[in-house]
Amino acid sequence: MTDVTIRGIDDDVYARFAAEAKKRGIPIGELTTQVMRDLVEEVSNPGYCINNVDDLEVAKRDLESMDGSISFNNIDVLEFADDVDWETFKVKVGSIVNVDKVVIPATLTKLQVLIKARNVSEIRTRKQK
Questions:
Q1: pTM here?
Q2: How far is CA 87 from CA 5, 45, 72, 93, in A?
Q3: Rounded CA gap, 117 and 99, in Å?
Q4: How far apart are the C-alpha atoms of 9 and 3, rounded to whole Å?
Q5: Which candidate, 88, 95, 103, places its Cα nearest to that of 56?
Q6: CA separation for the pair 51, 72 (Å, rounded)
Q7: Residue 124: is its pLDDT beyond 70?
Q8: Both 35 and 53 in a single domain?
Q9: How many domains is the chain partitioned into structurally?
Q10: 66 in any annotated domain
Q11: Is the per-residue pLDDT at 41 higher than 90?
Q12: Which residues form the domain of 19?
């Protein structure tokens, strides 16, 4: 482990960060390492962005065909096929932003989808065929 001194951190941001570390029951250094690791992994892993589509259905094969994660933005209806499981969704879907309606298979829960979502109007579970 490396000891570092960081100058110029906003007082309010640091206080809120320290409070979050305390709430989670972990040292500030450990939380800082987690945040840094997440940023480094995000930057080092290629990511893709799908934007401005009316209707899009995505199968497991589609997700697995890409090297990195995929962000879905500004889509009217985003539908995940029945073969999309949690493991694939968790690894391959980076974010879902500004989507009117997301249709998910019974293999996913709404909460699993919501952790990747921002500004989504509706999430609906498709009944299995």
A1: 0.67
A2: 38, 17, 18, 10
A3: 9
A4: 16
A5: 103
A6: 6
A7: yes
A8: no
A9: 2
A10: yes
A11: no
A12: 11-44
Does residue 1 sit within a domain?
no
Quick: pLDDT tens for 44-82.
Answer: 666 799 999 999 999 999 999 998 899 999 999 999 999
Distance separating alpha carbons of residues 128 and 125, to the nearest angstrom: 9
Q: How confident is the model at residue 116 (pLDDT cuts 50, 70, 90)?
A: very high
Checking DSSP bridges between strand 47-58 and strand 69-80, what pairing results, if any? Answer: parallel
Task: Note whether 88 and 27 are same-domain residues.
Answer: no
How many Å apart are CA 82 and CA 126, to the nearest integer? 8
**Rounded mean pLDDT of 21-33?**
91
- C-alpha torsion sign, points 37, 40, 42, 45: negative
Alpha helix positions (H), the chain:
11-24, 28-44, 60-64, 86-92, 110-114
- The whole-angstrom separation of Cα 26 and Cα 110 is 28
What does DSSP assign to residue 117?
E
Asked if the structure places residue 3 within a domain, the reply is no
Q: Are residues 39 and 51 in the same domain?
A: no
